[in-house]
Structure formats: C-alpha cells, structure tokens
TrEMBL record:
GO terms for biological process: methylation. It comes from the Bacteria. The keyword Transferase applies. Residues 10-51 form the 23S rRNA (guanine(745)-N(1))-methyltransferase N-terminal domain. Keywords: Methyltransferase, Transferase. It comes from Pontiella agarivorans. Gene3D superfamilies: Vaccinia Virus protein VP39. This is Methyltransferase domain-containing protein. The lineage of its organism: Bacteria, Pseudomonadati, Kiritimatiellota, Kiritimatiellia, Kiritimatiellales. Residues 93-176 form the Methyltransferase domain. InterPro entries: Methyltransf_25 (IPR041698), RlmA_N (IPR048647), rRNA_m1G-MeTrfase_A_prd (IPR016718), SAM-dependent_MTases_sf (IPR029063). GO terms for molecular function: methyltransferase activity.
Length: 277
C-alpha cells in the first residue's frame, strides 16, 4: 500500500490520520486495520453496512472487470484520463465508488500522485488492489463519513456512482475539482430496446446531477463522449450483469438477449467538472 506523509486517510473510529505500520495501518489512538494480502485495508465499520456483504457481488464485479478489459468503454476511460485537472502530476485523486478500479487504476499507471479508491464492495476492492499497485484501496461506505481528511484532495471522481456531495465538498481542496460521470443521451439505447427497459431520459441526467450539486458546487463545464461498439455474446452478458438492467428486466428478456451472437450499441457519457462555491 502507498500512503503519503502526512496521510490523508483518516481512522473511521476517531478521525486521526492512519499511518503505515508493518502489515497494517493504525492511528495514534491505537486503532489498527490489517492490510490484506492483495494490498487493501477494510475501513468499513459494522454499523456502516446494511448487509453482511454490501455492494456489488462477485459476479457483478467480475463482469465489470471483463467488460472494461474488453475495451467497450474505452471512450469513457480515455475521456477521464485526458482531463487536464486529473492529469497534473502529484495530484491527490479520490475515486469514490471505484468499483473494480479500472478508471483510477489507469490513472495511477499514467501519472504520478496519490490515487485513492474506495468502494463498499469488498470483492471490488480485492480485485482492484490485486491488479493496480500504484494506488491505495479501501473498503469504505462512500455515502457515510468518508475516511479522508478535510481539504486534502485535488480531484474527486464519482463516475456512474452514488454521490455524497456534503462529504465531497469537505474533502476537496478549495481549488479542487469534482468530476461527475453520468450516462449520456441514448446510452445503450439498442440494448434497452431489446430488453424493453426504460431508465428515463438520460438526456436529463447531467442537468439533474448539476442541480443536486448546486448548493455546494458550480458547474465549470461538461464533456460529452460517445461512440458505437460492436459487442459479442460474452460482452452482452457481462454488460447486462453489471448494470441496473439486470435487476429491472424480465428473466425472459435477458435470456433472449444473451443468446444474441452480437449487438452494436451506443455508448454515451457526460462528464461534469464541478468546482467548490
């Protein structure tokens, strides 16, 4: 695990800085957290979880890993890694709701700096930390008190993930940038039609995200990225398993789509750059 000095990671019990100590991290008050063999630490306290194994289950995590590895969402990865505020060397970047770590991990391989990923899914963090060794990975609940110091992050990523705007505002430096990623217009429209699945008007998602941030953040600009991707059967299956489509479509519709040998879909995302008020 990589931690800078002073450490921006805070003890979830007492909020004191967590420092590396042999095979664990601990605060000055003696609250220890073991570093797993994959390289991550679990900072999720028992009262911060609603289920025994919260977050994405192993099947969803591995579906997401395979899908990102296939390159089907490369337009999103490239857009995030090319953002100028993210690409400055020596920045501190938090990815809240990082999943299996593809976006933050790619950034950590491309730039210097401190890269921290948190997710409530233990399996997701295990998978992320096993591959991406230039970042620090933690199991934590991003919708509660995030175990990161006030005014310590240059950038926060919240890509296709729930947002904790109050905590983001606290954690960001005064000149920091919050990057929000939401589905863009016509995202996966071909797959949604096949499944007779409606998720509302994706065209409005960016506006809604900006409005919800408005009390604490103002929008600097937004970037729309899109493209067409030809998916094979395995990619179609993984895409369905890793998205809300899995839970909101009928079993019959999913079974029929998973038998398709190929399907060309629109991938579309909007990135919003938000600054603190």
């Amino acid at each position: 695990m990589i931690l800078p000095t002073p450490s921006p990671i805070r003890c979830p019990v007492c909020s004191e800085p967590l420092m590396l100590q042999d095979n664990m991290i601990a605060c000055q008050n003696g609250h220890p957290f073991n570093i797993a063999r994959e390289g991550y630490a679990n900072l999720l306290l028992s009262h911060q979880r609603k289920a025994k194994q919260p977050g994405d289950d192993p099947e969803m995590v591995m579906a997401r890993r395979r899908f990102f590895d296939s390159g089907a969402f490369d337009v999103l990865t490239e857009a995030v890694t090319e953002l100028p505020t993210i690409g400055n060397d020596d920045n501190a970047v938090l990815d809240c709701g990082c999943g299996e770590g593809h976006l933050l991990g790619t950034l950590s391989e491309k730039y210097r700096g401190f890269f921290c990923g948190i997710d409530i899914s233990k399996k997701a963090i295990q998978v992320a930390s096993k591959r991406w060794k230039n970042a620090a990975w933690f199991v934590a609940n991003g919708m509660r008190n995030i175990p990161v110091a006030t005014n310590s992050m240059d950038s926060i990523l919240s890509i296709l993930a729930p947002r904790n705007n109050d905590e983001f505002h606290r954690i960001l430096k005064p000149d920091g940038v919050l990057i929000i990623g939401v589905p863009g217009f016509n995202h996966l429209i071909e797959l949604r039609k096949q499944l007779q699945f409606s998720s509302g008007d994706f065209k409005e998602k960016a506006d809604t995200a900006a409005e919800k941030c408005a009390p604490l953040f103002e929008e600097a600009n937004r970037i729309a990225v899109s493209g067409k991707v030809a998916l094979n059967r395995e990619q179609i299956t993984d895409l369905i398993r890793m998205t809300p489509i899995f839970w909101r479509s009928s079993d019959a519709a999913k079974a029929a789509v998973m038998q398709l040998s190929s399907l060309t879909v629109t991938v579309s995302f909007t990135l919003l750059r938000m600054t603190k008020k």
